[in-house]
From TrEMBL:
The lineage of its organism: Archaea, Methanobacteriati, Methanobacteriota, Stenosarchaea group, Halobacteria. It comes from Haloprofundus marisrubri. Seems to be required for maximal rate of protein biosynthesis. Enhances ribosome dissociation into subunits and stabilizes the binding of the initiator Met-tRNA(I) to 40 S ribosomal subunits. Belongs to the eIF-1A family. This is Translation initiation factor 1A. Residues 6-80 form the S1-like domain. GO terms for molecular function: RNA binding; translation initiation factor activity. Keywords: Initiation factor, Protein biosynthesis. The keyword Protein biosynthesis applies. The gene is eif1a.
């Protein structure tokens, strides 16, 4: 058995993205997230994700912080529970 058995290749953040954990559901397609850099941001769930991907509290997501307003961001990806556990094991998130 190889040490990478059972490991999935996961989507990693681009240069402008970072990991975040959903802390609160705000309604109107918005969530409160705690980013890896320690900043609390209000994140918007884009239309292409609204009906296809259900986001709940404590989910690990990728966010793209806005350039012009640091306290806001867009959700770009949601990790499943197994994928989030794998990211924690590999030390990418806490």
């Amino acid at each position: 058995m190889s040490e990478n058995e059972g490991r999935n290749n996961l989507r990693m953040p681009n240069d402008d993205e970072e990991f975040a954990v959903v802390t609160n559901m705000l309604g109107a397609n918005r969530v409160k997230v705690r980013c890896a850099d320690g900043t609390e941001r209000t994140a918007r769930i884009p239309g292409r994700m609204q009906k296809r991907i259900w986001i709940r509290e404590d989910d690990v997501v990728l966010v793209d912080p806005w350039d012009w307003q640091d306290e806001k961001a867009d959700v770009t990806w949601r990790y499943k529970k197994q994928e989030a556990d794998q990211l924690r094991e590999e030390g990418h998130i806490q």
